[in-house]
Amino acid sequence: MKKVAVFGSTGSIGRATLDIISRCREKFSVFGLVANKQKDLLNEQIHTFEPGFAVFVDEQGKDGVKKGKTTYLYGKQHLEFLATHPEVDIVVMAISGLGGLNCTIKALEAGKTVALASKEIIVCAGHLLKDKKGKILPVDSEHNAIFQILDREKNSVTEIMLTASGGPFLNYKGDLSDVTVNQVLNHPVWKMGKRITVDSATMMNKGFEVIEAFYLFGIEKENIRVLLHPQAIVHGFVRFCDGFVKAVCSIPDMRYSINYCLNYPERIDAGLPELDISSVKNLTFEELKQGLFPCFDLAREALKKDISYLTVLNAADEEAVGMFLDGRIKFDSIPVIIEKALERHHPVYLGNVSDILTLDQQVRDEIRTFVNV
């Protein structure tokens, strides 16, 4: 039986992970749960899954108190303890932002399998994740699709293609400065957290995924393409030198890639609905052209520059998205703020986690000074 620690258990990925575990109780046990602010939901999860440890990151309490089978811990200082615990087999890292960066690296150094859903970790610290004892399994449906292909056939790859649904404004004809938060959060296909949903609307999310693909698969930057695919059935393609192209398809539901990661290298039936190929009447693909989504273009340009630009890109995006969600800026101001932050940056050496977190905070502080809201 595999013992799983779920970081970010109350978020969309964390909840989906626990759904898969609940379907396969004979194969998995929950060793630890980590959550930030949703205390009531975390307590419900503790009651249901009876983990060995539960970490309340933003709550106050007495460490080490045991209630039933669960030992309660309070504060982010316990994340590394759980991520590297000798009994943990799989770490599901779904903490948003860079909150799970250090413990992800420590888990990999300890030889853990990390099912990684926090794309910011790879975007900002991809260069620090290489050559570790443990293994990264990508949870994102697109990277999971590419991984499934390359895990069995790595040679003679000439190109990988990620797909993008296009978000809610793919064919929008109105003025983007007038769109509301509710419109932006109304994604036509995926149900996700707020930041990633906004990033999907600006296509920054897909820009981040190009950066992730570069680090995860060692593919040259110019050989990573993105295709607009509104149906979100095909998650990725790999082209080989002999002309063959392989693709991975599924119903657009994150539980499929989570199930794959938890059971890797095996496959099991977790009782998820099967894709009825005969019911798929129309699959369309179109090149994501430069200029269509400014945020995507900014991500592509940042990848061509010094590594430190990627931390600036992520920090500026998260700040700008937060300002939009709070009603302090218009939707079309998001790429403007990011571009300004990138223009003001001078490359710096990022040799460790501390360097990344320091630059991240500097960028956020700077944005708050030059954005007059």
What CATH calls the topology of the largest domain is: Rna Polymerase Sigma Factor, Chain: A
Strand order of the largest sheet: 4-5-3-2-1-6-7-8
Count up the helices: 14
| Structural classification | alpha/beta
Order of helices and strands: EHEHEEEHEHEHEHEHHHEEEHEHHHH
User: How many independent structural domains?
Assistant: 2
- Report the mean per-residue pLDDT as an integer: 94
List the SSEs and their pairings.
Blueprint: E1 2-7, H1 12-23, E2 28-35, H2 39-49, E3 53-56, E4 65-67, E5 70-74, H3 79-83, E6 90-93, H4 101-109, E7 113-116, H5 119-125, E8 135-138, H6 141-150, E9 157-164, H7 181-185, H8 194-202, H9 204-217, E10 224-228, E11 234-240, E12 245-249, H10 255-263, E13 286-287, H11 294-304, H12 308-325, H13 334-344, H14 353-370
Parallel strand pairs: 1-2, 1-6, 2-3, 3-5, 6-7, 7-8, 9-10
Antiparallel strand pairs: 4-5, 9-11, 10-13, 11-12
How would you describe this protein?
It is a single chain. The protein is of the alpha/beta class and 373 residues long. The protein folds into two domains: 2-138, NAD(P)-binding Rossmann-like Domain (Rossmann fold, 3-Layer(aba) Sandwich), CATH 3.40.50.720; 144-249 and 287-370, Rna Polymerase Sigma Factor, Chain: A. The protein is built from 14 helices and 13 strands. It has an eight-stranded mixed β-sheet with strand order 4-5-3-2-1-6-7-8, sandwiched between helices. Strands 12-11-9-10-13 form a five-stranded mixed β-sheet, with helices on one face. Strand 6 (90-93), helix 4 and strand 7 (113-116) form a beta-alpha-beta unit. Helix 5 (119-125) crosses helix 9, helix 8 (194-202) crosses helix 12 and helix 12 (308-325) packs across helix 14. The longest helix is centred in the C-terminal third of the chain and has 18 residues, at 308-325. The model has no long low-confidence stretch (mean pLDDT 94).
